[in-house]
Protein backbone atom coordinates (compact mmCIF):
# COMPACT_ATOMS: atom_id res chain seq x y z
CA UNK A 1 0.00 0.00 0.00
CA UNK A 2 1.42 3.37 -1.06
CA UNK A 3 2.21 5.86 1.65
CA UNK A 4 0.08 9.00 1.45
CA UNK A 5 2.10 12.17 0.90
CA UNK A 6 1.44 15.29 2.93
CA UNK A 7 -0.66 17.78 0.98
CA UNK A 8 -1.99 21.01 2.47
CA UNK A 9 -4.35 21.54 -0.50
CA UNK A 10 -6.25 18.43 0.59
CA UNK A 11 -7.70 20.52 3.44
CA UNK A 12 -9.44 22.83 0.94
CA UNK A 13 -12.88 21.12 1.25
CA UNK A 14 -12.81 21.73 5.01
CA UNK A 15 -11.89 25.38 4.44
CA UNK A 16 -14.76 25.69 1.94
CA UNK A 17 -17.23 24.15 4.38
CA UNK A 18 -16.22 26.37 7.30
CA UNK A 19 -16.05 29.41 5.01
CA UNK A 20 -19.54 28.88 3.64
CA UNK A 21 -21.20 27.95 6.91
CA UNK A 22 -19.46 30.26 9.38
CA UNK A 23 -18.33 32.94 6.95
CA UNK A 24 -21.78 33.55 5.49
CA UNK A 25 -23.21 33.87 8.99
CA UNK A 26 -20.59 36.43 10.01
CA UNK A 27 -21.10 38.47 6.84
CA UNK A 28 -24.90 38.44 6.90
CA UNK A 29 -25.38 38.29 10.67
CA UNK A 30 -27.70 35.32 10.16
CA UNK A 31 -26.28 31.80 10.42
CA UNK A 32 -29.41 30.36 8.82
CA UNK A 33 -28.79 32.16 5.51
CA UNK A 34 -26.57 29.32 4.33
CA UNK A 35 -28.20 25.92 4.99
CA UNK A 36 -25.55 23.70 6.55
CA UNK A 37 -26.42 20.78 4.24
CA UNK A 38 -25.77 22.95 1.20
CA UNK A 39 -22.41 24.02 2.65
CA UNK A 40 -21.31 20.42 3.24
CA UNK A 41 -22.55 19.32 -0.20
CA UNK A 42 -20.41 22.00 -1.87
CA UNK A 43 -17.41 20.98 0.26
CA UNK A 44 -17.96 17.27 -0.47
CA UNK A 45 -18.20 18.03 -4.20
CA UNK A 46 -14.88 19.89 -3.98
CA UNK A 47 -13.31 16.86 -2.26
CA UNK A 48 -14.57 14.57 -5.03
CA UNK A 49 -13.23 16.85 -7.77
CA UNK A 50 -9.73 17.01 -6.28
CA UNK A 51 -6.95 14.49 -7.07
CA UNK A 52 -7.43 13.97 -10.81
CA UNK A 53 -4.96 11.06 -10.77
CA UNK A 54 -7.63 8.92 -9.13
CA UNK A 55 -10.77 7.81 -10.95
CA UNK A 56 -14.08 9.32 -9.91
CA UNK A 57 -15.41 5.83 -9.12
CA UNK A 58 -12.50 5.21 -6.76
CA UNK A 59 -13.09 8.53 -5.02
CA UNK A 60 -16.77 7.76 -4.56
CA UNK A 61 -15.82 4.42 -3.03
CA UNK A 62 -13.44 6.18 -0.61
CA UNK A 63 -16.16 8.70 0.24
CA UNK A 64 -18.56 5.84 0.97
CA UNK A 65 -15.96 4.12 3.14
CA UNK A 66 -15.62 7.28 5.27
CA UNK A 67 -19.38 7.79 5.47
CA UNK A 68 -19.77 4.18 6.62
CA UNK A 69 -16.98 4.19 9.21
CA UNK A 70 -18.01 2.00 12.21
CA UNK A 71 -17.57 4.89 14.70
CA UNK A 72 -19.76 7.08 12.53
CA UNK A 73 -22.42 4.39 12.12
CA UNK A 74 -22.62 3.94 15.89
CA UNK A 75 -23.03 7.71 16.24
CA UNK A 76 -25.81 7.68 13.62
CA UNK A 77 -27.64 4.90 15.48
CA UNK A 78 -27.37 6.99 18.66
CA UNK A 79 -28.80 10.02 16.85
CA UNK A 80 -31.73 7.98 15.50
CA UNK A 81 -32.57 6.46 18.89
CA UNK A 82 -31.97 9.79 20.64
CA UNK A 83 -34.47 11.53 18.39
CA UNK A 84 -37.06 8.81 18.96
CA UNK A 85 -36.50 8.77 22.75
CA UNK A 86 -36.70 12.56 22.98
CA UNK A 87 -39.98 12.72 21.07
CA UNK A 88 -41.57 9.80 22.96
CA UNK A 89 -40.53 11.17 26.37
CA UNK A 90 -41.75 14.64 25.46
CA UNK A 91 -45.11 13.37 24.18
CA UNK A 92 -45.96 11.40 27.32
CA UNK A 93 -45.00 14.25 29.68
CA UNK A 94 -41.58 13.13 30.93
CA UNK A 95 -39.83 16.38 30.03
CA UNK A 96 -42.51 18.55 31.61
CA UNK A 97 -42.47 16.56 34.88
CA UNK A 98 -38.66 16.56 35.05
CA UNK A 99 -38.51 20.30 34.48
CA UNK A 100 -41.13 20.91 37.18
CA UNK A 101 -39.19 18.70 39.61
CA UNK A 102 -36.00 20.69 38.95
CA UNK A 103 -37.85 23.98 39.42
CA UNK A 104 -39.33 22.72 42.69
CA UNK A 105 -36.12 21.60 44.36
CA UNK A 106 -33.28 23.65 42.86
CA UNK A 107 -32.80 27.38 43.49
CA UNK A 108 -33.10 29.12 40.15
CA UNK A 109 -29.51 30.30 40.35
CA UNK A 110 -28.40 26.65 40.38
CA UNK A 111 -30.55 25.35 37.52
CA UNK A 112 -27.98 25.76 34.74
CA UNK A 113 -25.05 24.71 36.93
CA UNK A 114 -27.18 21.70 37.86
CA UNK A 115 -27.50 20.79 34.18
CA UNK A 116 -23.71 20.86 33.88
CA UNK A 117 -23.23 18.64 36.96
CA UNK A 118 -25.94 16.15 35.93
CA UNK A 119 -24.45 16.05 32.43
CA UNK A 120 -21.03 15.31 33.92
CA UNK A 121 -22.41 12.36 35.94
CA UNK A 122 -24.41 10.92 33.05
CA UNK A 123 -21.51 11.17 30.61
CA UNK A 124 -19.15 9.57 33.13
CA UNK A 125 -21.57 6.69 33.44
CA UNK A 126 -22.50 6.34 29.76
CA UNK A 127 -19.11 7.15 28.28
CA UNK A 128 -20.70 9.11 25.44
CA UNK A 129 -21.22 12.82 25.03
CA UNK A 130 -23.81 12.48 22.26
CA UNK A 131 -25.94 10.11 24.36
CA UNK A 132 -25.74 12.54 27.30
CA UNK A 133 -26.86 15.45 25.15
CA UNK A 134 -29.75 13.36 23.80
CA UNK A 135 -30.94 12.64 27.34
CA UNK A 136 -30.52 16.15 28.77
CA UNK A 137 -31.10 18.60 25.90
CA UNK A 138 -34.94 18.38 25.98
CA UNK A 139 -34.88 19.01 29.75
CA UNK A 140 -32.50 21.95 29.23
CA UNK A 141 -34.85 23.45 26.65
CA UNK A 142 -37.78 23.07 29.06
CA UNK A 143 -35.92 24.63 31.99
CA UNK A 144 -34.67 27.57 29.92
CA UNK A 145 -38.20 28.22 28.64
CA UNK A 146 -39.84 28.07 32.08
CA UNK A 147 -37.17 30.15 33.84
CA UNK A 148 -36.64 32.58 30.94
CA UNK A 149 -32.95 31.65 30.64
CA UNK A 150 -31.08 31.64 27.35
CA UNK A 151 -31.54 28.25 25.70
CA UNK A 152 -28.05 28.63 24.17
CA UNK A 153 -26.64 28.97 27.71
CA UNK A 154 -28.46 25.79 28.78
CA UNK A 155 -27.10 23.90 25.76
CA UNK A 156 -23.59 25.20 26.48
CA UNK A 157 -23.82 23.87 30.05
CA UNK A 158 -25.06 20.46 28.84
CA UNK A 159 -22.32 20.17 26.22
CA UNK A 160 -19.76 21.06 28.89
CA UNK A 161 -21.03 18.34 31.21
CA UNK A 162 -21.12 15.87 28.32
CA UNK A 163 -17.49 16.61 27.39
CA UNK A 164 -16.44 16.18 31.05
CA UNK A 165 -17.43 12.51 30.95
CA UNK A 166 -16.29 12.02 27.36
CA UNK A 167 -12.82 13.04 28.55
CA UNK A 168 -12.76 10.98 31.77
CA UNK A 169 -15.15 8.03 31.59
CA UNK A 170 -13.60 4.55 31.79
CA UNK A 171 -15.89 3.42 28.97
CA UNK A 172 -15.51 6.47 26.71
CA UNK A 173 -14.09 5.64 23.29
CA UNK A 174 -11.77 8.66 23.47
CA UNK A 175 -10.36 7.52 26.81
CA UNK A 176 -9.91 3.97 25.58
CA UNK A 177 -8.18 5.22 22.40
CA UNK A 178 -5.87 7.53 24.35
CA UNK A 179 -4.89 4.80 26.83
CA UNK A 180 -4.33 2.17 24.17
CA UNK A 181 -2.24 4.35 21.86
CA UNK A 182 -0.03 5.49 24.76
CA UNK A 183 0.18 2.02 26.34
CA UNK A 184 -0.76 3.11 29.85
CA UNK A 185 -3.34 2.05 32.42
CA UNK A 186 -6.88 3.45 32.48
CA UNK A 187 -6.88 4.25 36.21
CA UNK A 188 -3.49 6.00 35.98
CA UNK A 189 -4.60 8.15 33.07
CA UNK A 190 -7.84 8.98 34.91
CA UNK A 191 -5.97 10.25 37.99
CA UNK A 192 -3.63 12.45 35.96
CA UNK A 193 -6.41 13.72 33.68
CA UNK A 194 -8.87 14.39 36.52
CA UNK A 195 -6.56 16.69 38.47
CA UNK A 196 -5.73 18.67 35.33
CA UNK A 197 -9.38 19.36 34.44
CA UNK A 198 -10.90 19.60 37.94
CA UNK A 199 -10.26 23.38 38.17
CA UNK A 200 -12.09 23.81 34.85
CA UNK A 201 -15.17 22.01 36.19
CA UNK A 202 -15.20 24.06 39.41
CA UNK A 203 -14.75 27.37 37.57
CA UNK A 204 -17.49 26.41 35.08
CA UNK A 205 -19.96 25.79 37.94
CA UNK A 206 -19.06 29.13 39.54
CA UNK A 207 -19.43 31.02 36.25
CA UNK A 208 -22.80 29.39 35.52
CA UNK A 209 -24.09 30.30 38.99
CA UNK A 210 -22.84 33.90 38.77
CA UNK A 211 -24.25 34.68 35.31
CA UNK A 212 -27.68 33.24 36.18
CA UNK A 213 -27.88 34.82 39.65
CA UNK A 214 -31.03 36.93 39.92
CA UNK A 215 -31.51 37.05 36.17
CA UNK A 216 -34.41 34.66 35.81
CA UNK A 217 -38.12 35.34 35.71
CA UNK A 218 -39.98 34.16 38.84
CA UNK A 219 -41.37 30.67 38.31
CA UNK A 220 -44.16 28.89 40.15
CA UNK A 221 -43.43 25.17 39.77
CA UNK A 222 -46.33 23.05 38.62
CA UNK A 223 -47.13 19.48 39.65
CA UNK A 224 -44.86 16.68 38.52
CA UNK A 225 -45.28 12.93 38.30
CA UNK A 226 -42.57 10.47 39.31
CA UNK A 227 -44.13 7.85 37.04
CA UNK A 228 -43.82 10.10 34.00
CA UNK A 229 -40.17 10.69 34.87
CA UNK A 230 -39.38 6.97 34.86
CA UNK A 231 -38.01 7.00 31.27
CA UNK A 232 -35.32 9.51 32.31
CA UNK A 233 -34.72 7.80 35.65
CA UNK A 234 -34.41 4.48 33.82
CA UNK A 235 -31.95 5.94 31.30
CA UNK A 236 -29.82 7.41 34.10
CA UNK A 237 -29.89 4.19 36.16
CA UNK A 238 -28.94 2.04 33.17
CA UNK A 239 -26.14 4.48 32.30
CA UNK A 240 -24.79 4.30 35.85
CA UNK A 241 -24.76 0.51 35.56
CA UNK A 242 -22.63 0.80 32.42
CA UNK A 243 -25.24 -0.44 29.94
CA UNK A 244 -24.45 0.27 26.27
CA UNK A 245 -25.86 3.65 25.19
CA UNK A 246 -27.82 2.14 22.29
CA UNK A 247 -29.50 -0.32 24.65
CA UNK A 248 -30.12 2.51 27.14
CA UNK A 249 -31.92 4.67 24.59
CA UNK A 250 -33.88 1.74 23.13
CA UNK A 251 -35.03 0.80 26.63
CA UNK A 252 -36.02 4.41 27.30
CA UNK A 253 -38.19 4.44 24.18
CA UNK A 254 -39.99 1.24 25.18
CA UNK A 255 -40.48 2.38 28.80
CA UNK A 256 -41.81 5.75 27.66
CA UNK A 257 -44.25 4.07 25.29
CA UNK A 258 -45.51 1.58 27.88
CA UNK A 259 -46.12 4.33 30.47
CA UNK A 260 -47.69 6.60 27.86
CA UNK A 261 -50.12 3.92 26.71
CA UNK A 262 -50.91 2.90 30.31
CA UNK A 263 -51.86 6.45 31.39
CA UNK A 264 -53.69 7.30 28.17
CA UNK A 265 -51.09 9.68 26.73
CA UNK A 266 -50.64 7.38 23.74
CA UNK A 267 -52.47 4.85 21.67
CA UNK A 268 -50.21 2.27 20.04
CA UNK A 269 -50.52 4.11 16.72
CA UNK A 270 -49.67 7.46 18.32
CA UNK A 271 -46.65 5.93 20.08
CA UNK A 272 -45.29 4.50 16.82
CA UNK A 273 -45.88 7.85 15.09
CA UNK A 274 -43.90 9.63 17.81
CA UNK A 275 -40.98 7.28 17.20
CA UNK A 276 -41.17 8.09 13.49
CA UNK A 277 -41.39 11.83 14.14
CA UNK A 278 -38.35 11.67 16.41
CA UNK A 279 -36.28 9.77 13.86
CA UNK A 280 -37.24 12.14 11.05
CA UNK A 281 -36.37 15.09 13.26
CA UNK A 282 -32.76 13.87 13.28
CA UNK A 283 -32.60 13.33 9.51
CA UNK A 284 -30.61 16.49 8.77
CA UNK A 285 -28.07 15.64 11.46
CA UNK A 286 -27.67 12.07 10.18
CA UNK A 287 -27.19 13.23 6.58
CA UNK A 288 -24.71 15.88 7.70
CA UNK A 289 -22.71 13.34 9.72
CA UNK A 290 -22.49 10.94 6.76
CA UNK A 291 -21.36 13.68 4.37
CA UNK A 292 -18.73 14.95 6.83
CA UNK A 293 -17.45 11.39 7.30
CA UNK A 294 -17.09 10.92 3.54
CA UNK A 295 -15.38 14.28 3.06
CA UNK A 296 -12.92 13.60 5.88
CA UNK A 297 -11.95 10.24 4.34
CA UNK A 298 -11.08 11.99 1.06
CA UNK A 299 -9.12 14.68 2.92
CA UNK A 300 -7.19 11.93 4.67
CA UNK A 301 -6.64 9.97 1.44
CA UNK A 302 -5.36 13.07 -0.34
CA UNK A 303 -2.79 13.80 2.37
CA UNK A 304 -4.52 16.48 4.45
CA UNK A 305 -4.10 14.68 7.77
CA UNK A 306 -0.45 13.84 6.97
CA UNK A 307 0.12 17.53 6.23
CA UNK A 308 -1.16 18.44 9.69
CA UNK A 309 1.02 15.78 11.32
CA UNK A 310 4.20 16.90 9.53
CA UNK A 311 3.55 20.61 10.09
CA UNK A 312 2.97 20.19 13.81
CA UNK A 313 6.11 18.13 14.47
CA UNK A 314 8.78 20.08 12.57
CA UNK A 315 10.30 22.21 15.33
CA UNK A 316 10.47 20.44 18.67
CA UNK A 317 13.46 20.98 20.94
CA UNK A 318 12.25 20.26 24.49
CA UNK A 319 9.89 18.17 26.60
CA UNK A 320 7.54 21.14 27.03
CA UNK A 321 7.64 21.76 23.28
CA UNK A 322 6.83 18.11 22.61
CA UNK A 323 3.81 18.31 24.93
CA UNK A 324 2.57 21.40 23.10
CA UNK A 325 3.12 19.55 19.81
CA UNK A 326 0.97 16.64 21.01
CA UNK A 327 -1.76 19.09 22.03
CA UNK A 328 -1.55 20.97 18.74
CA UNK A 329 -1.41 17.76 16.74
CA UNK A 330 -4.60 16.24 18.11
CA UNK A 331 -6.39 19.63 18.09
CA UNK A 332 -5.60 20.28 14.42
CA UNK A 333 -6.56 16.77 13.41
CA UNK A 334 -9.82 17.11 15.36
CA UNK A 335 -10.62 20.33 13.51
CA UNK A 336 -10.17 18.45 10.24
CA UNK A 337 -12.02 15.25 11.17
CA UNK A 338 -14.74 16.60 13.54
CA UNK A 339 -14.34 13.39 15.54
CA UNK A 340 -12.23 13.27 18.71
CA UNK A 341 -11.89 9.49 18.73
CA UNK A 342 -10.61 9.36 15.15
CA UNK A 343 -8.23 12.26 15.84
CA UNK A 344 -6.73 10.39 18.82
CA UNK A 345 -6.38 7.17 16.83
CA UNK A 346 -4.74 9.08 13.95
CA UNK A 347 -2.25 11.02 16.07
CA UNK A 348 -1.74 8.58 18.96
CA UNK A 349 1.20 6.61 17.49
CA UNK A 350 3.12 9.80 16.66
CA UNK A 351 2.34 11.21 20.12
CA UNK A 352 3.70 7.97 21.62
CA UNK A 353 6.94 8.35 19.65
CA UNK A 354 7.35 11.94 20.86
CA UNK A 355 6.56 10.94 24.45
CA UNK A 356 9.25 8.25 24.33
CA UNK A 357 11.82 10.55 22.72
CA UNK A 358 11.32 13.46 25.13
CA UNK A 359 10.63 11.34 28.24
CA UNK A 360 7.01 12.44 28.66
CA UNK A 361 5.11 10.23 31.07
CA UNK A 362 2.57 8.03 29.26
CA UNK A 363 -0.15 9.18 31.63
CA UNK A 364 0.52 12.78 30.63
CA UNK A 365 0.59 12.14 26.87
CA UNK A 366 -2.67 10.15 27.09
CA UNK A 367 -4.26 12.96 29.12
CA UNK A 368 -3.16 15.63 26.66
CA UNK A 369 -4.56 13.71 23.71
CA UNK A 370 -7.93 13.30 25.43
CA UNK A 371 -8.16 16.80 26.92
CA UNK A 372 -7.41 18.75 23.75
CA UNK A 373 -9.46 16.51 21.46
CA UNK A 374 -12.48 16.89 23.78
CA UNK A 375 -11.93 20.64 24.03
CA UNK A 376 -11.99 21.09 20.24
CA UNK A 377 -14.87 18.64 19.83
CA UNK A 378 -16.97 20.69 22.25
CA UNK A 379 -16.24 23.92 20.37
CA UNK A 380 -16.53 23.17 16.65
CA UNK A 381 -19.99 24.16 15.35
CA UNK A 382 -19.87 21.29 12.84
CA UNK A 383 -19.13 18.66 15.51
CA UNK A 384 -21.75 16.09 16.51
CA UNK A 385 -22.14 17.50 20.04
CA UNK A 386 -22.83 21.10 19.01
CA UNK A 387 -25.01 20.05 16.08
CA UNK A 388 -27.18 17.68 18.12
CA UNK A 389 -27.67 20.21 20.94
CA UNK A 390 -28.60 22.89 18.40
CA UNK A 391 -31.01 20.47 16.70
CA UNK A 392 -32.85 19.78 19.97
CA UNK A 393 -32.98 23.49 20.85
CA UNK A 394 -33.84 24.68 17.31
CA UNK A 395 -31.01 27.23 17.33
CA UNK A 396 -27.82 27.76 15.34
CA UNK A 397 -24.81 25.84 16.71
CA UNK A 398 -22.74 29.02 16.55
CA UNK A 399 -25.10 30.68 19.05
CA UNK A 400 -23.91 28.16 21.67
CA UNK A 401 -20.23 29.06 21.24
CA UNK A 402 -20.23 32.10 23.61
CA UNK A 403 -21.46 29.80 26.40
CA UNK A 404 -19.00 26.95 25.80
CA UNK A 405 -17.13 27.63 29.03
CA UNK A 406 -15.96 24.14 29.95
CA UNK A 407 -14.37 23.17 26.60
CA UNK A 408 -12.38 26.43 26.64
CA UNK A 409 -11.38 26.05 30.28
CA UNK A 410 -10.10 22.47 29.91
CA UNK A 411 -7.85 23.65 27.07
CA UNK A 412 -6.53 26.46 29.29
CA UNK A 413 -5.97 23.99 32.13
CA UNK A 414 -4.14 21.72 29.71
CA UNK A 415 -1.89 24.60 28.62
CA UNK A 416 -1.14 25.52 32.24
CA UNK A 417 -0.37 21.86 33.00
CA UNK A 418 2.20 21.90 30.19
CA UNK A 419 3.75 25.19 31.26
CA UNK A 420 4.18 24.23 34.93
CA UNK A 421 4.82 20.55 34.11
CA UNK A 422 1.89 19.31 36.17
CA UNK A 423 1.39 16.70 37.43
CA UNK A 424 4.89 15.62 38.41
CA UNK A 425 5.06 11.86 38.18
CA UNK A 426 7.16 9.42 40.12
CA UNK A 427 8.92 7.10 37.73
CA UNK A 428 7.49 3.58 37.67
CA UNK A 429 9.83 0.65 37.89
CA UNK A 430 10.45 -0.94 34.51
Automatic annotation (TrEMBL):
Any Pfam family the entry gives: Na_H_antiporter
Task: Identify its membrane topology class.
Answer: Multi-pass membrane protein
Q: Which InterPro entries does the entry mention?
A: Na/H_Antiport_NhaC-like_C, NhaC_Na-H+_Antiporter
Q: For this protein, what is any one GO molecular function term?
A: antiporter activity
Q: Which key words tag this protein in UniProt? A: Antiport, Cell membrane, Membrane, Transmembrane, Transmembrane helix, Transport
- Mark the transmembrane ranges: 9-28, 34-51, 72-89, 109-137, 149-172, 192-214, 235-259, 279-299, 404-422
Q: Does the keyword Transmembrane apply?
A: yes
Similarity section: Belongs to the NhaC Na(+)/H(+) (TC 2.A.35) antiporter family.
Q: Please report the name of this protein according to its UniProt entry.
A: Sodium:proton antiporter
Specify the species: Metabacillus indicus
Amino acid sequence: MMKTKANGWALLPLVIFIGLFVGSGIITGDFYKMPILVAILVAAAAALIMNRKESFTSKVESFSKGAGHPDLMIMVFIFILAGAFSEVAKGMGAVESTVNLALSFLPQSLLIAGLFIIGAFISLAMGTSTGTIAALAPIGVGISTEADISVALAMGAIIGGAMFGDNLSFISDTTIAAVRTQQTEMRDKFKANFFIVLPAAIITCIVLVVITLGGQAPVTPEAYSWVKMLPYIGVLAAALLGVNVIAVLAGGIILGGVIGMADGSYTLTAFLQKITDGIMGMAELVILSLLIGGMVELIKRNGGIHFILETMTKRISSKRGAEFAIAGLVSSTNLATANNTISIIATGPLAKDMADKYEIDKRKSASLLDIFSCSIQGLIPYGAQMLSAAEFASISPTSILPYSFYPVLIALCGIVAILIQFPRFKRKAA
